[in-house]
Amino acid sequence: AQSVTQPDIHITVSEGASLELRCNYSYGATPYLFWYVQSPGQGLQLLLKYFSGDTLVQGIKGFEAEFKRSQSSFNLRKPSVHWSDAAEYFCAVGLLEYGNKLVFGAGTILRVKS
Amino acid sequence: NAGVTQTPKFRVLKTGQSMTLLCAQDMNHEYMYWYRQDPGMGLRLIHYSVGEGTTAKGEVPDGYNVSRLKKQNFLLGLESAAPSQTSVYFCASSYVSPNTEAFFGQGTRLTVV
Fold it and tell me: Are B101 and A34 in contact (CB < 8 Å)?
């Protein structure tokens, strides 16, 4: 069965420090991968997506993610975190054969300390 | 440009009551979805629809029904609410093309007491 694992429930980083959020997926076919961000009380906003081609994808707000097929990973990175990045981050895999439905990881809550 | 709109935003139900959540999208998307979000579990798919008049079960369909009578609307019904259905519900929609993302509504916070 398809699944997405985000190993870190909470992460705390200092403002200005670098960030990496981990995501591993289990899926037999070529994955369509996404990272979404959710601020408290809000809906989900797409940060970036990977469908094919260059395995390093750039997103909004200075985020990037790298697809590594050999490791079944799609980790999210940012070189310098801002206080406004504090939110919950969700990794998801899209299933083309099931109406493009998304299977989400459990999420990682990012706290930024000043 | 409204995108995906969910109504209501908040609701408190008593056990056994029924209600319908409405999702409307104005992007002419073929696909629509209902997810529930619970702490530590991410979002889980309840039901989805690949077109007007069609619906399919997701991961957690029990206790819910859906209808897609019009392309732009996707309704989620709870016939007899239970405390286990206390959650935040998100509707989303997307194009048929696989190289596109889903757009989400702002959510409905439902509490069943």
Answer: yes
Q: What do you get for the CA distance between the two ends of chain B, in Å?
A: 36
pLDDT in tens for each of the 113 residues of chain B? 679 999 999 999 999 999 999 999 999 999 999 999 998 899 999 999 999 999 999 999 999 999 999 999 999 999 999 999 999 999 999 988 777 889 999 999 999 99
B101 vs B93: CA distance, rounded Å: 9
Q: Do B104 and A51 touch (CB under 8 A)?
A: no
User: How many Cβ atoms from other residues are within 10 Å of residue A69's Cβ?
Assistant: 10
pLDDT 10s digits, A63-73: 999 999 999 99
Cross-strand partners of A65: A57, A76
Ranges of beta strands (E only) in A15-55 are 19-21, 24-26, 32-38, 44-50
A chain contacts of residue B99, beta-carbon cutoff 8 Å: 32, 51-52
pLDDT digits (tens, 9 = 90+) for B31-49: 999 999 998 899 999 999 9
Instruction: Give the strand pairing for B87-94 and B73-78.
Output: unpaired
A77: contact with B, CB 8 A cutoff: no
